[in-house]
Amino acid sequence: xxxxxxxxxxxxxxxxxxxxxLTAFFFEDYRLFLFIPSVIILVVSLVATQLAYGYxxxxxxxxxxxxxxxxxxxxxxxxxxxxQICSNCHKDL
Length: 93
Ligand SMILES: [Zn+2]
Hints:
Blueprint: H1 4-26, H2 31-66, E1 70-71, E2 78-79
Zinc ion (ZN) binds near residues 74 and 75.
């Protein structure tokens, strides 16, 4: 699973971004200086989420292949060697 620390960091990113956006809404003179960092923080949070999820899938699949599973030829989901149907895409193997 994705570590709790990563989720807390991503949550803080979203919270900070939302706070800056709200602040930017009320202070018209500094709108640009507040809005740009909030967008940057939001994008970084989204990218961090995707990277964390990708790393989680990579670790999970690597462990599955070590345990003797093979990748599905259609979707690359780890399946048992004697399986007839993929548990992820439901295609005949
Ligand atoms: Zn599949």
